[in-house]
Amino acid sequence: MLFLRSLLFHVAFFANLIALQIVWLPALLMKRQASMTLGRVWGRSSLFLLDKIVGLKFEFRGLENIPQGPVIVACKHQSTWETFVLPLHSPDFSYILKRELVLIPFFGWYLMGAEQIGIDRAKGGKLLPQLIEKTKALFAQGRQLFIFPEGTRRPAGAPPIYKFGVALLYRETSAACLPVALNSGLFWPRQAFILRPGTAVIEYLPPIPPGLEPRDFFERMQDRIESASDRLIAEAVARDPSLAAVVERGRRTAETAA
Protein backbone atom coordinates (compact mmCIF):
# COMPACT_ATOMS: atom_id res chain seq x y z
CA MET A 1 0.00 0.00 0.00
CA LEU A 2 2.84 2.42 0.81
CA PHE A 3 4.37 1.68 -2.58
CA LEU A 4 1.15 2.37 -4.48
CA ARG A 5 0.44 5.55 -2.52
CA SER A 6 3.99 6.77 -3.06
CA LEU A 7 3.83 5.99 -6.78
CA LEU A 8 0.55 7.86 -7.15
CA PHE A 9 1.91 10.82 -5.20
CA HIS A 10 5.09 11.12 -7.28
CA VAL A 11 3.06 11.05 -10.50
CA ALA A 12 0.63 13.67 -9.17
CA PHE A 13 3.43 15.79 -7.66
CA PHE A 14 5.36 16.17 -10.91
CA ALA A 15 2.24 16.44 -13.08
CA ASN A 16 1.05 19.26 -10.83
CA LEU A 17 4.42 21.02 -11.04
CA ILE A 18 4.55 20.75 -14.84
CA ALA A 19 0.97 21.97 -15.24
CA LEU A 20 1.53 24.95 -12.94
CA GLN A 21 4.69 25.96 -14.79
CA ILE A 22 2.85 25.93 -18.12
CA VAL A 23 -0.16 27.86 -16.82
CA TRP A 24 2.11 30.39 -15.08
CA LEU A 25 4.32 31.17 -18.09
CA PRO A 26 3.12 34.81 -18.32
CA ALA A 27 4.63 35.34 -14.85
CA LEU A 28 8.09 35.22 -16.42
CA LEU A 29 7.31 38.60 -17.99
CA MET A 30 6.23 40.09 -14.67
CA LYS A 31 7.92 41.15 -11.45
CA ARG A 32 9.45 38.54 -9.13
CA GLN A 33 6.35 38.34 -6.92
CA ALA A 34 4.50 36.57 -9.75
CA SER A 35 7.04 33.74 -9.79
CA MET A 36 7.01 33.63 -5.99
CA THR A 37 3.24 33.23 -6.07
CA LEU A 38 3.71 30.17 -8.27
CA GLY A 39 6.04 28.72 -5.64
CA ARG A 40 3.43 29.20 -2.92
CA VAL A 41 0.65 27.66 -5.02
CA TRP A 42 2.94 24.70 -5.70
CA GLY A 43 3.67 24.42 -1.99
CA ARG A 44 0.03 24.46 -0.90
CA SER A 45 -1.04 22.04 -3.62
CA SER A 46 1.84 19.69 -2.75
CA LEU A 47 0.77 19.65 0.90
CA PHE A 48 -2.77 18.84 -0.25
CA LEU A 49 -1.52 15.92 -2.36
CA LEU A 50 0.63 14.60 0.49
CA ASP A 51 -2.34 14.68 2.84
CA LYS A 52 -4.91 13.12 0.50
CA ILE A 53 -2.68 10.51 -1.18
CA VAL A 54 0.02 9.59 1.34
CA GLY A 55 -1.70 10.55 4.59
CA LEU A 56 1.17 12.90 5.45
CA LYS A 57 -0.23 15.86 7.33
CA PHE A 58 1.66 18.96 8.46
CA GLU A 59 2.02 21.22 11.46
CA PHE A 60 3.53 24.71 11.54
CA ARG A 61 4.85 25.83 14.92
CA GLY A 62 6.35 29.11 16.08
CA LEU A 63 4.92 31.28 13.31
CA GLU A 64 4.81 34.12 15.83
CA ASN A 65 8.63 34.02 15.93
CA ILE A 66 8.99 35.01 12.26
CA PRO A 67 10.14 38.65 12.12
CA GLN A 68 9.20 41.16 9.47
CA GLY A 69 11.92 42.34 7.12
CA PRO A 70 15.50 41.14 6.60
CA VAL A 71 16.57 38.02 8.49
CA ILE A 72 18.69 34.94 7.85
CA VAL A 73 16.35 31.93 7.95
CA ALA A 74 18.64 29.00 8.82
CA CYS A 75 16.73 25.76 8.34
CA LYS A 76 17.47 22.12 9.03
CA HIS A 77 17.42 20.21 5.73
CA GLN A 78 16.15 16.63 5.59
CA SER A 79 13.71 16.52 2.68
CA THR A 80 12.23 18.15 -0.40
CA TRP A 81 9.27 19.02 1.84
CA GLU A 82 10.74 22.11 3.51
CA THR A 83 11.83 23.64 0.20
CA PHE A 84 8.21 24.36 -0.71
CA VAL A 85 7.00 24.96 2.87
CA LEU A 86 9.37 27.80 3.83
CA PRO A 87 8.07 30.19 1.12
CA LEU A 88 4.55 29.89 2.56
CA HIS A 89 5.63 31.95 5.56
CA SER A 90 7.68 34.75 3.99
CA PRO A 91 6.36 37.65 1.89
CA ASP A 92 9.63 38.19 0.00
CA PHE A 93 12.69 35.94 0.08
CA SER A 94 15.59 34.40 -1.76
CA TYR A 95 17.11 30.95 -1.39
CA ILE A 96 20.78 30.14 -1.62
CA LEU A 97 20.55 27.03 -3.78
CA LYS A 98 22.75 24.88 -5.98
CA ARG A 99 23.34 26.30 -9.46
CA GLU A 100 22.16 23.11 -11.17
CA LEU A 101 18.56 23.90 -10.19
CA VAL A 102 18.67 27.23 -12.03
CA LEU A 103 19.69 25.41 -15.22
CA ILE A 104 16.57 23.18 -15.29
CA PRO A 105 14.21 24.30 -18.11
CA PHE A 106 11.01 25.96 -16.87
CA PHE A 107 11.80 25.30 -13.18
CA GLY A 108 15.05 27.26 -13.38
CA TRP A 109 13.37 30.05 -15.31
CA TYR A 110 10.98 30.63 -12.44
CA LEU A 111 13.85 30.56 -9.95
CA MET A 112 15.55 33.29 -11.95
CA GLY A 113 12.25 35.16 -12.27
CA ALA A 114 11.94 35.11 -8.49
CA GLU A 115 15.57 36.34 -8.21
CA GLN A 116 16.89 33.35 -6.28
CA ILE A 117 20.64 32.96 -5.68
CA GLY A 118 22.23 30.00 -7.48
CA ILE A 119 25.77 29.00 -6.47
CA ASP A 120 28.38 26.52 -7.64
CA ARG A 121 28.95 24.50 -4.47
CA ALA A 122 32.23 23.14 -5.82
CA LYS A 123 33.79 26.59 -5.33
CA GLY A 124 33.18 26.45 -1.58
CA GLY A 125 34.57 29.36 0.43
CA LYS A 126 35.65 31.25 -2.69
CA LEU A 127 32.01 32.26 -3.14
CA LEU A 128 31.67 33.87 0.27
CA PRO A 129 32.53 37.49 -0.71
CA GLN A 130 30.02 37.29 -3.57
CA LEU A 131 27.36 35.81 -1.29
CA ILE A 132 27.90 38.53 1.28
CA GLU A 133 27.38 41.25 -1.33
CA LYS A 134 24.27 39.55 -2.75
CA THR A 135 22.84 39.11 0.73
CA LYS A 136 23.42 42.76 1.61
CA ALA A 137 21.63 43.79 -1.59
CA LEU A 138 18.80 41.39 -0.72
CA PHE A 139 18.41 42.87 2.75
CA ALA A 140 18.48 46.40 1.34
CA GLN A 141 15.28 45.44 -0.49
CA GLY A 142 13.70 44.24 2.76
CA ARG A 143 13.81 40.58 1.70
CA GLN A 144 14.65 37.47 3.73
CA LEU A 145 17.40 34.93 3.03
CA PHE A 146 16.70 31.18 3.21
CA ILE A 147 19.76 29.05 3.80
CA PHE A 148 20.39 25.40 4.68
CA PRO A 149 23.52 25.63 6.88
CA GLU A 150 24.45 21.98 6.28
CA GLY A 151 24.52 22.60 2.54
CA THR A 152 22.55 19.49 1.59
CA ARG A 153 19.83 17.17 2.83
CA ARG A 154 20.78 14.96 5.76
CA PRO A 155 18.96 11.83 6.96
CA ALA A 156 16.81 12.18 10.07
CA GLY A 157 18.97 11.20 13.03
CA ALA A 158 22.29 11.69 11.24
CA PRO A 159 25.04 13.71 12.98
CA PRO A 160 25.03 17.37 11.84
CA ILE A 161 27.60 18.81 9.41
CA TYR A 162 27.02 22.57 9.61
CA LYS A 163 29.16 24.89 7.48
CA PHE A 164 30.71 27.94 9.13
CA GLY A 165 29.87 30.20 6.19
CA VAL A 166 26.48 31.05 7.70
CA ALA A 167 28.26 32.57 10.71
CA LEU A 168 30.30 34.81 8.44
CA LEU A 169 27.14 35.92 6.62
CA TYR A 170 25.61 36.67 10.02
CA ARG A 171 28.61 38.80 11.03
CA GLU A 172 29.03 40.68 7.76
CA THR A 173 25.33 41.51 7.29
CA SER A 174 24.60 42.35 10.96
CA ALA A 175 21.29 40.52 10.58
CA ALA A 176 19.29 38.45 13.05
CA CYS A 177 18.98 34.73 12.40
CA LEU A 178 15.78 32.68 12.57
CA PRO A 179 16.64 29.01 13.34
CA VAL A 180 14.21 26.44 11.96
CA ALA A 181 13.83 22.82 13.10
CA LEU A 182 11.85 19.99 11.51
CA ASN A 183 11.33 16.23 11.25
CA SER A 184 10.37 15.90 7.57
CA GLY A 185 13.10 13.36 6.83
CA LEU A 186 11.19 10.74 8.79
CA PHE A 187 8.42 10.75 6.20
CA TRP A 188 10.06 11.85 2.94
CA PRO A 189 13.77 10.98 3.18
CA ARG A 190 16.39 12.11 0.73
CA GLN A 191 16.43 10.07 -2.51
CA ALA A 192 13.65 7.82 -1.20
CA PHE A 193 10.72 6.63 -3.28
CA ILE A 194 8.56 5.45 -0.39
CA LEU A 195 6.79 8.16 1.62
CA ARG A 196 5.26 7.49 5.02
CA PRO A 197 2.05 8.81 6.60
CA GLY A 198 2.22 10.87 9.78
CA THR A 199 2.68 14.53 10.64
CA ALA A 200 5.65 16.49 9.35
CA VAL A 201 6.42 19.41 11.67
CA ILE A 202 8.37 22.59 11.00
CA GLU A 203 9.12 24.81 14.00
CA TYR A 204 10.35 28.40 13.81
CA LEU A 205 12.46 29.03 16.91
CA PRO A 206 13.07 32.39 18.65
CA PRO A 207 15.43 34.56 16.56
CA ILE A 208 19.09 34.92 17.47
CA PRO A 209 19.83 38.67 17.65
CA PRO A 210 22.70 40.23 15.69
CA GLY A 211 26.00 41.16 17.28
CA LEU A 212 27.30 37.85 18.63
CA GLU A 213 30.80 36.64 17.87
CA PRO A 214 30.66 34.27 14.87
CA ARG A 215 31.74 31.22 16.85
CA ASP A 216 29.23 31.91 19.64
CA PHE A 217 26.48 32.44 17.08
CA PHE A 218 27.40 29.28 15.17
CA GLU A 219 27.30 27.10 18.27
CA ARG A 220 24.04 28.64 19.49
CA MET A 221 22.36 28.24 16.10
CA GLN A 222 23.44 24.62 15.72
CA ASP A 223 22.44 23.73 19.27
CA ARG A 224 18.97 25.27 18.89
CA ILE A 225 18.25 23.63 15.53
CA GLU A 226 19.58 20.21 16.51
CA SER A 227 17.94 20.14 19.96
CA ALA A 228 14.56 21.12 18.55
CA SER A 229 14.83 18.76 15.56
CA ASP A 230 15.76 15.87 17.87
CA ARG A 231 12.73 16.71 20.01
CA LEU A 232 10.42 16.72 16.98
CA ILE A 233 11.84 13.38 15.82
CA ALA A 234 11.35 11.90 19.30
CA GLU A 235 7.73 13.11 19.36
CA ALA A 236 7.04 11.44 16.01
CA VAL A 237 8.71 8.17 17.04
CA ALA A 238 6.66 8.14 20.27
CA ARG A 239 3.48 8.35 18.15
CA ASP A 240 4.70 5.78 15.62
CA PRO A 241 7.48 3.49 16.93
CA SER A 242 8.10 2.09 13.43
CA LEU A 243 9.79 5.41 12.59
CA ALA A 244 12.68 4.43 14.87
CA ALA A 245 13.90 2.23 12.01
CA VAL A 246 14.05 5.30 9.75
CA VAL A 247 16.20 7.12 12.32
CA GLU A 248 18.54 4.14 12.69
CA ARG A 249 18.82 3.79 8.92
CA GLY A 250 19.72 7.47 8.67
CA ARG A 251 22.48 7.09 11.24
CA ARG A 252 23.93 4.07 9.46
CA THR A 253 23.79 5.86 6.11
CA ALA A 254 25.65 8.84 7.55
CA GLU A 255 28.29 6.60 9.12
CA THR A 256 28.82 4.74 5.85
CA ALA A 257 29.20 7.99 3.91
CA ALA A 258 31.66 9.47 6.43
Folded structure, characterized:
Pathway: Lipid metabolism. This is 1-acyl-sn-glycerol-3-phosphate acyltransferase. Keywords: Acyltransferase, Membrane, Transferase, Transmembrane, Transmembrane helix. InterPro entries: Plipid/glycerol_acylTrfase. Residues 71-185 form the Phospholipid/glycerol acyltransferase domain. The two termini are 34 Å apart. This protein has helices at 2-23, 32-54, 81-85, 99-102, 107-113, 128-140, 165-173, 214-239, 244-257; strands at 56-61, 72-75, 93-98, 117-119, 144-147, 177-182, 198-204. The chain has a single domain, classed as Glycerol-3-phosphate (1)-acyltransferase, CATH 3.40.1130. The longest helix has 26 residues, at 214-239. The protein is built from nine helices and seven strands, in the order ααββαβααβαβαββαα. A seven-stranded mixed β-sheet has the order 1-7-6-2-5-3-4. The radius of gyration is 18 Å and the shape is globular. The chain is of the alpha/beta class and 258 residues long. Helices cover 48% and strands 14% of the residues. Helix 7 packs across helix 8 (214-239).
List the helices and strands and how they pair.
Layout: H1 2-23, H2 32-54, E1 56-61, E2 72-75, H3 81-85, E3 93-98, H4 99-102, H5 107-113, E4 117-119, H6 128-140, E5 144-147, H7 165-173, E6 177-182, E7 198-204, H8 214-239, H9 244-257
Parallel strand pairs: 1-7, 2-5, 2-6, 3-4, 3-5
Antiparallel strand pairs: 6-7
Helix pairs in contact: 1-2, 6-7, 7-8
Protein name: 1-acyl-sn-glycerol-3-phosphate acyltransferase
Pathway: Lipid metabolism
Keywords: Acyltransferase, Membrane, Transferase, Transmembrane, Transmembrane helix
